[in-house]
Amino acid sequence: MDSSSSSSSSSSYGVAHVSHISNPCIFGEAGSSSSSTYRDKKWNLMKWVGKLFKSGSSGGGARTNHHPPQFQEDENMVFPLHPSSLDDRSRGARDKEEFDRAMSLSRADDRRRPHGYGWSMDNNSDFPRPFHGGLNPPSFIPPYEPSYQFRRRQRICGGCNRDIGMGNYLGCMGTFFHPECFCCHSCRYPITEHEFSLSGTKPYHKICFKELTHPKCEVCHHFIPTNDAGLIEYRCHPFWNQKYCPSHEYDKTARCCSCERLESWDVRYYTLEDGRSLCLECMETAITDTGDCQPLYHSIRDYYEGMYMKLEQQIPMLLVQREALNDAIVGEKNGYHHMPETRGLCLSEEQTVTSVLKRPRLGAHRLVGMRTQPRKLTRKCEVTAILVLYGLPRLLTGAILAHELMHGWLRLKGYRNLNPEVEEGICQVLSYMWLESEVLSDPLSRNVPSTSSSGATSSSSSSFSNKKGGKSNVEKKLGEFFKHQIAHDASPAYGGGFRAANAAVSKYGLHRTLDHIRYTGTFPL
């Protein structure tokens, strides 16, 4: 069981809150308010002077008639002089002089301040100071915020590396993006949904991220569903890494009888007459009748001869259907059979066996029109015949033949009463060695198998190449799979026996191991 999860995060679009003033506020006027303040100061000054004159005269005794005429009214009244009586200039001239003075002070103050601080409010000043001395009212800056605070903070887009400006933007992962620049790392289209998936710093559409990370069933091509615990549970072939929904193991999905891969919904398997299914790759080199199998059978006998293990007797070899093979197993007294399905048999009893005489033809993804023939097998030696299931690819058929021929060799050479782990284990070693020689063979050379101390994992090139002059990558891959099947078989006799036999052959060599088996019935340690 495997689990995967994806994480999603949220994003939201917003508008940049940038302070921008196109028409600055005007908070004062150069002439009217300043002149009024100046007149008020003059009025207060005259009141203070009038009180001073009054207090001075009252300290000298009796009132005289030398007071100025404007103070001869009631003693509690002080009549201020008109402001114009203190200055002979016109009102406009006086206002202009005060305004020019304020402007001069403002410029001098600006020169003493850092750049960007072009405004000031002096508590002791009667006049507001304009920004940089402009005479036009729109040049004044409002007193509640300095001008540098109106400047927008620059935002650089994390996608195009340009200034975002005044438009909409998206903030995510510590940076900002134009909406059209925040794109999925897979499809490169903008992400407009409120939720998206994040892998490291790479954003994805949720569906794109699911396509990349969520496993898909290789049978139905749907996303593999989660189980009750919320985890993604699937089955995976140990060699082919074919991932599929657990439900396909019991929903009658066809499985190739050779490579064990499940049939995909977009690919049709071939159906043999005995009900087995065969994938297209295995079908390319499938051997479907006894006549076609004879060259392969004789090449494997030559392989044994090259290893100084020649079989003197001519043992018949037949390709049979599943039903005929199962019937022969029932009538056989000796031997250990690999369940649940046996694909080969070294027959030692006299029986009548129905063999495949003529290959079936292809028709609508089915093999039809097979011709069979019953054949009576008589015992002339310890081995009556070798039976192999028809319709299997060449390398698998050869591996089965190499295995069954080793059974025949042991019986013909007088190896008796071996336990299943020993007999099946050493037969699997010969099958593995032949497969390895085929997978690693050079189609342009013909080398004789080695009989040195190397085991199943270190054998020579094959003495046989197929009629096409070499094996395709697909066939070599199938050969690697059949080797994998032998090496990782879980059964005690076939799997455990192979691993023990292979260790002995690797250490002592094939012939020394066989001699030890002859005398002790066990593998050398």
Automatic annotation (TrEMBL):
Biased composition (Low complexity): 450-467
Record-linked PROSITE patterns: LIM_DOMAIN_1, LIM_DOMAIN_2
SMART domains in UniProt: LIM
Basic and acidic residues bias: start-end ranges: 85-107
Residues annotated as domain LIM zinc-binding: 155-215
Protein keywords: LIM domain, Metal-binding, Repeat, Zinc
Listed name of the protein: LIM zinc-binding domain-containing protein
Origin organism lineage: Eukaryota, Viridiplantae, Streptophyta, Embryophyta, Tracheophyta
